[in-house]
């Protein structure tokens, strides 16, 4: 087996900011990158890069690491782009396949369907004009992405006039059972469940209203399929919900602060991850620059706060657990640094290893195989 495919090395895909946007603090990245990460030695090795994709602020990777789908989030475009790449782990060749318009502005999140047939995309959307679609579905083809096969626009607002002046879909997450997605709309304070039809159509089956001004952003799914955890960007909380796989309905269970009370005014939550055994939830806090830790009651879904640890940098935008669960990687956007935190599987605790990757404006981290 060649050096480029060493079994001990994990494939890590990193999207970095390479074009200025008024709501980010500088663009020092170089597009899409592929690294090998040696989890034993805690070393990173550059394997490939593609600089001609603009602002790949979110991406998804097929389980085998051979397909990558990036969102291009450019502030003054009325439509973002979604680009498909092929990656060959044996040769480290990263090849462009094709690009499709996202049918909405500020393309924020995507996810490959569990059956590998589709890509779900969420557009945050700002202003008015253009297609202005909130959620879009693409078919995945051998040679890239089809044109959009389904889409839906959200309409609504929330009490925060600066951030909730209109609908802002921030993520789209397919449930573990498949066939349904939950869209977190930060602007409307809603979690909206859609059933995916045979023709990829989106049928709204349930709407859950969050606390006013919560601003739901990202979701984490418990491996038992019964609980959903939500990172709320605007009011800095983490909420737990029960999920009914038959109806798509979400039922509130618990809400916990993501940061200390004195830090809430200057904090904006970002990503949320759950350990593979479902026992611990981790949330990223921009402003407080910390990772919050919660233990999960496996019977009820209740959350027990286990404190906060420094994020190993500044402005933690995205998190990634290694497939083994032994480490949590943090994309520290404004520190130009991916930090490596060791994770205790028994206590859920996190410790900064001191290992890091210096890279300009990291925005999204994805391991192949998870």
> Structural class per helix/strand content?
mainly beta
Label the overall shape.
globular
For the termini, the CA-CA separation is: 23 Å
Count every beta strand, where a strand is a DSSP E run of 2 or more residues: 28
- Structure annotation, total helices: 0
User: What does the radius of gyration come to?
Assistant: 19 Å
**Biggest β-sheet: strands ordered side by side in the sheet:** 3-2-1-28
Keywords: Carbohydrate metabolism, Glucose metabolism
Protein name: 6-phosphogluconolactonase
GO cellular component, one term: cytosol
GO molecular function: 6-phosphogluconolactonase activity
Question: What does the model show?
Answer:
By secondary structure, the protein is an all-beta fold. The chain contains no helices and 28 strands. The protein has strands at residues 9-16, 32-38, 43-50, 56-61, 67-72, 81-88, 93-101, 107-112, 118-123, 135-141, 144-152, 169-174, 180-185, 190-196, 202-209, 216-221, 227-232, 237-243, 250-257, 268-274, 280-286, 290-296, 303-310, 316-321, 327-332, 337-343, 350-358, 362-367. The protein has a four-stranded antiparallel beta sheet with strand order 3-2-1-28, with no helix packed on it. The chain has a four-stranded antiparallel beta sheet with strand order 4-5-6-7, with no helix packed on it. It has a four-stranded antiparallel beta sheet with strand order 8-9-10-11, with no helix packed on it. The protein is globular.
Q: How do the helices and strands line up, and which of them pair or pack?
A:
Elements: E1 9-16, E2 32-38, E3 43-50, E4 56-61, E5 67-72, E6 81-88, E7 93-101, E8 107-112, E9 118-123, E10 135-141, E11 144-152, E12 169-174, E13 180-185, E14 190-196, E15 202-209, E16 216-221, E17 227-232, E18 237-243, E19 250-257, E20 268-274, E21 280-286, E22 290-296, E23 303-310, E24 316-321, E25 327-332, E26 337-343, E27 350-358, E28 362-367
Antiparallel strand pairs: 1-2, 1-28, 2-3, 4-5, 5-6, 6-7, 8-9, 9-10, 10-11, 12-13, 13-14, 14-15, 16-17, 17-18, 18-19, 20-21, 21-22, 22-23, 24-25, 25-26, 26-27
């Amino acid at each position: 087996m060649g050096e480029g495919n060493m079994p001990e090395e994990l494939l890590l895909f990193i999207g970095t900011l390479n074009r200025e946007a008024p709501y980010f603090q500088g663009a020092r990245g170089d597009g899409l990158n592929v690294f090998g990460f040696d989890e034993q030695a805690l070393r990173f090795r550059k394997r490939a890069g593609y600089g001609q994709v603009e602002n790949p602020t979110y991406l998804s990777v097929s389980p085998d690491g051979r397909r990558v789908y990036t969102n291009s989030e450019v502030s003054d475009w009325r439509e973002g782009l979604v680009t498909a790449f092929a990656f060959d782990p044996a040769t480290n060749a990263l090849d462009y396949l094709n690009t499709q318009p996202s049918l909405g502005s500020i393309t924020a999140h995507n996810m490959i369907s569990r059956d590998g047939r589709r890509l779900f995309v969420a557009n945050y959307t700002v202003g008015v004009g253009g297609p202005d679609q909130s959620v879009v579905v693409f078919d995945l083809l051998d040679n890239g992405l089809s044109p959009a096969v389904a889409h839906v626009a959200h309409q609504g607002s929330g009490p925060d006039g600066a951030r909730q002046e209109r609908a802002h879909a921030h993520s789209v997450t397919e449930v573990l059972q498949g066939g349904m997605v939950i869209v977190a709309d930060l602007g409307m304070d809603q979690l909206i469940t859609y059933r995916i039809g045979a023709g990829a159509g989106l049928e709204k089956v349930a709407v859950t209203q969050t606390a006013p001004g919560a601003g739901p952003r990202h979701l984490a799914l418990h491996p038992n399929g019964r609980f959903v955890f939500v990172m709320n960007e605007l009011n800095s909380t983490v909420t737990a919900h029960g999920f009914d796989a038959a109806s798509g309905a979400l039922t509130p269970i618990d809400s916990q602060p993501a940061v200390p009370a004195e830090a809430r005014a200057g904090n904006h939550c970002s990503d949320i991850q759950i350990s593979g055994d479902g026992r611990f939830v981790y949330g990223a806090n921009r402003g407080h620059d910390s990772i919050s830790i919660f233990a999960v009651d496996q019977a009820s879904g209740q959350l027990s706060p286990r404190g906060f640890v420094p994020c190993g940098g500044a402005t933690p935008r995205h998190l990634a657990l290694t497939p083994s669960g032994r480490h949590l990687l943090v994309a520290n956007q404004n520190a130009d640094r991916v930090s490596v935190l060791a994770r205790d599987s028994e206590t859920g605790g996190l410790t900064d290893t001191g290992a890091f990757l210096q890279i300009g404006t990291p925005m999204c981290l994805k391991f192949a195989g998870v």
